[in-house]
Write the structure tokens for this entry.
Amino acid sequence: MTPHLIIALAVLLLPLVSFIFLIFFGKRLTKISGHIGTTFLGIDLLLAIYLFFAKLYDTAASWDFTFSWIDFHTTLNNIPLKLDIGIMVDNLTAAMLVVVTTVSALVHLFSLAYMKDDVRYSRYYSFLGLFTFSMLGIVLTNNYFMMYAFWELVGVSSYLLIGHWYEKKSAADAGKKAFIVNRVGDFGFLVGIMIVWMQFSTTTFSGIFGAIGGGKIPFGSDTWLTIAGLLIFCGAVGKSAQFPLHVWLPDAMEGPTPVSALIHAATMVAAGVYLVARTFPILTADALVIIAYTGAITAFIAATIAIVQNDIKKILAYSTISQLGYMVMGLGVGAFTSGVFHLVTHAAFKAGLFLGSGSVIYAMHNALHHVNDHHTDAQDVRSMGGLKKKMPITFWTMLMFTLAISGVPLTSGFLSKDEILAGTLSFAHFTGHSAIPFIGFFVAGLTAFYMFRMLILTFFGDHHDAHRAEHLHESPWVMTVPLIVFAVLSFFAWYSFNPIGAKDGWFYAKITTPHVVVPEHIAATPTEEFLEEVHHQHNLTMLISVGVAGFGILMAFVIYYWKKISADALEKALKSVHTFLYRKWYFDELYDATVVAGTIGLAKVLAWFDAKIIDGIVNGAGSITKITSVISGKFDTYVVDGLVNFTAYFAGLFGLIFRKIQTGKVQTYILFAVVGMMVFVVLFGM
Amino acid sequence: MEITLTHFLLISAVLFSLGVFAVITRRNAIMVLMGIELILNSANINFLAFSRYGGMNIEGQMAAIFVIILAAAEAAVALAIVLNIYKRFNTVNVDEISILKD
């Protein structure tokens, strides 16, 4: 193991140490526990950054460390059957490590103020550590087996953090929902892992890719390779909140806002996209088309819902789903680097958006508290407005994030989104699926519209309540510093010095599309051809995307700032559409009516079966035993005991008779003997 | 009249019967012991008679002497038992000593 891999292990284990330390000593440390957790993550971040640069300047493709955990000492398909685990650092991993630790460290810092009055402060910090550890595990592992373990750890820690305020029923339900919906996707993932393990006797990425590259495909069938890829993708559908398993994510807003930032930017939803990126070399053309459509549909549905939501966190939640749809779509169309790039840039501005909304909610909450208003919802954008003057740092950073997510030039979001859109155009050029770029551009416009709607409603306009406004203050420095950091990271120059050409930046130079190992006749368009076409489409893409984003922003200003078109009138005119979107396409209702009701119905049938049939059988068996035992008891009392008693009585009777001749007088006995002898003499002697 | 084996045996039988009668009917343990002596002596008469008439020769006389020795020993032991019985029950009346019954 090289020193660099030891550092990688340290990056992985530091949050775990933080978790273990705080879970045991947190209660005693009380408020210090936050500072301890933050310190751990700070060190973790520094190590990750060091590792990142070390990897980037290293010529090796990856640093790998594998050891045989379990050796079954047998063979399957003539390959030794064993379970190898290990860690691997390549450029993708190094970049992800920095993303995860950056977001996590800043969320730790932010929470120092945001969570300061929480009753379970140290527990909160310990679970943040667990969450970070799990995500780092997913990123660092070199095999599906370990990845699945960490995958489930992410599920558990998300459950714990979403349900942090478990006294609230909605929070407890949201935690359960997130966990259960994720399990649905994870089941597919598990089956996918089983297929590859059964076929290749290994779960390491290099082993699987090597076997498929060597011409060995699961069950010797092209279709099975597609199925295996899609089953693994199922895991990503759950974790990355893709249609149709996206329903858990908006509910996860019940958790504390910094947790939302962590989930949405770095630790949970990113896992799904990362999984697709890791699995990319074995995805067939068919699988990629399905993945691309899944992403596109997700992006579209979520964007339409985000337009009409009023809860600031819900808007951001749907925007996350929509952006995740983008990433998955990007990977699906074959624009590997762009999808991952969007994951990285999105992590910065989405974490910023959430922390910014946290800052707003914090201020609103305090102000409402001061004026003794317990009815107004601190998260409703309609009750905000005019916060620009009161919270300048929050406003300017939020503006930066909103510009980035809308894809306005000079931001990081512009770079990555453009590349994905160019990728979709290239994809349409090669495969004829022109719906994908169409959805992509349409959603880009929607994104700009709803994000600016949120920004305008929150920060512009007038105060709703002058009295309340007096109590609105900018948040403390521990909350604004993370915002500023993320705002700076949302600037284009970090990724490419060319504001309109992401290709010129280090990201595209270092994180390249991995070598696709799928047999040629079922593989997607070769990377070189694809990227060549992307290059051709680039200028056109830029033109359209800036156009639609500008139009979206303009419409937001027209409707919500200048109020040229009344939002209320629009809502009335499109009442049915508005209701449909406001009810989130009735997905929750649909699932409640089908899956949930079905499960409950099945549970009821089974409960009835249990209560009537199983219990009936058990009780019947009990009754029969009871009756048998009663009969047996009677038999015992009367027949067996009767026999025993009769024997004793019989013996007693004879005893009574024979007692008479047992006089105890020796002379009597002699007399008997003599008489007896005389009888014998008479009988036999004569 | 020639005295034959039959006469001896008759005497012996009478003696034996008297002995048994004494053993069965006497209340006093000492008397019971004396009955036993009679029985033993009737046996001795038989031995001597068979020694004279029956061809047992010297063995018959030896057995008789042996029985006498045995009778002496038996009398010693039996009297010791009677003494112990007297110590224990304060009587030598065999009718009153019936704890064997229990």
